[in-house]
Amino acid sequence: MLHELRIHSLALIDELHLDLSARHCGLTVLTGETGAGKSIILQAVNLLTGGRGSSTWVRSDRDQAVIEAIFTLAASNQAAQDLLAEHGLQDEASGQCMIRRLLHKDGRSRLFVNDQGVTAKLAAELSSHLVNIASQHDQQQLLNARSHLDFLDSYGELWELRQSYSADYQRWRQAAEALKALREREADKEQQHEFLRLQVEEIAKIKPRPQEDEALIRERDQLKSSEMLLQGVGAAERRLNAAQDLLVEIKKKLDQAVLLDAELAPLAERVTAAGFELEDIAALAAKYLADLPTDTSRLELIAGRLADLKQLQRKYGPSLEDVLSFAESAAQELELLDNMEEQIRRAEREAAKLLHQAEQSAVALSRARAAAGERMAVQMEAELASLNFPQASFVVGLQKVGLQKKDAEEGENLRPSGTDEVEFLFSANPGEPPKPLSRIVSGGELSRMMLAMKCLLARRDEVATVIFDEVDAGIGGQTAEAVAAKISELAGHHQVICITHLPQIAARADLHFKVEKQVNEGRTSTGISLLDEAARHAELARMLDGEQANAQTHAYVRELMARKHRSADS
């Protein structure tokens, strides 16, 4: 359940603290004039569920807005417990879950769970196990037939079965796509084979070697300068030999001097080392001269070879290593093409096996949906009867995807969600056939239908907290009393928070908060206060007749509040 909600510097809210720790379940209502800021509180909760935020929501004189909610986790809420454990987010000491959202004026936004940074996706997944928000957006979803399948699967607790089917479907789709790619390649196999064969033969004919072009360019450059290199390096070698002879004489002189003064020994040793170094340099110069290419007739051969290599590089890669890699890949591709028929046969067998598995999963899912649809229709009619639809008819219409296509190919009727299309049909009046919701439901009827749906779903999920945002739209009179009774019934086993303008609902609250605007030092802000019995009476009277409340109004308020107590006693 939602234990506490704190909001700081969000829109009109300067500082707001909603303390719900007094009750583990029951009905909490938020009332107030239109525009007082009730929707801001709901928006704050939505931000905690990963909803998109905006820097414009931060109060103009502040740098950031902070929204924080503390939830207590029931032991039965295994999904939330597992998700926290999976991501190392548990607070084992308190057993609570704290979600915090920061909105900065510069547009940055951060989410935390138990003081650890999380993604919006993870926050949304976690909050879906903690709180269920029923807003006018949800009512519009009820008008959209594409959402009805999700409602049915939630009611029937079929999501695990649906995910199992979806995994089978995805495996089949991947196999089918692979088979399709093979068949497309088979269609122009001969052309591909000939093209690849010519490419492999062209490279094999030239037989390039790694870095061969670099070695040839070096040899070409040496040949072009061979005469000058012979002269220059030869002269250097002769001088090196002469220098060695000179160092030998110097070494003899120093060795004689060392006999007279031992301090000259290091100098003699350095001359010896210099002699060895000169000897090594002279040997390298001699070797260079011996290896230096001088056959200038090779220049034409080198130019031709480089031209061949350059042609390969232009076609198959910037380097010879790339050319050789391409040749290897092309050879492998040729081998695959040679074995194409066997590959296709294997791919066909695999796709057929996976298609059969997906179809079996789809059949099992469809049967479960049909059974859930029958139960849902019966229970929805019972819920609607308690909401002042005494003879309403509700039908869960199921039909197969693409049923009209008699010549459909194998697997063509499979979809990621199964083979079923679902649409809810409704009739409020006896003798009138049920029709799609979007064609017949009024605003008041839609509010009651969403309430009935939420009541059904709430009994099946582990979410302890349900929030209703103005579920009373378009409702009045006897129907308002029926809606109030239904919300109160749901609050018997859930924590229900209801933003409402209906006194019939507000009168049944266990906790009643009033949201109102205040002006302090020229600044408007939204505040919230928990009402005692007398203040609740005054607020209910305002909700009924505004400033025109009279003795009859106050008598009706007493009657409304008495009904709550009579209902609790019964």
Describe this structure in words.
By secondary structure, this protein is an alpha/beta fold. 56% of the residues lie in helices and 17% in strands. The chain contains 19 helices and 15 strands. It has helices at residues 38-48, 78-86, 120-127, 136-143, 148-155, 159-187, 189-206, 212-224, 226-260, 265-291, 298-316, 320-338, 340-385, 437-440, 443-458, 477-490, 503-506, 533-545, 551-569; strands at 2-10, 13-19, 26-31, 64-72, 96-104, 109-113, 116-118, 131-134, 393-400, 420-427, 435-436, 465-469, 495-499, 511-520, 523-530. It has a 6-stranded antiparallel β-sheet. The chain has a 6-stranded mixed β-sheet with strand order 8-12-13-3-14-15, with helices on both faces. Strands 9-10-11 form a 3-stranded antiparallel β-sheet. Helix 15 (443-458) packs parallel to helix 16 (477-490). The longest helix has 46 residues, at 340-385. The protein is elongated, with a radius of gyration of 42 Å.
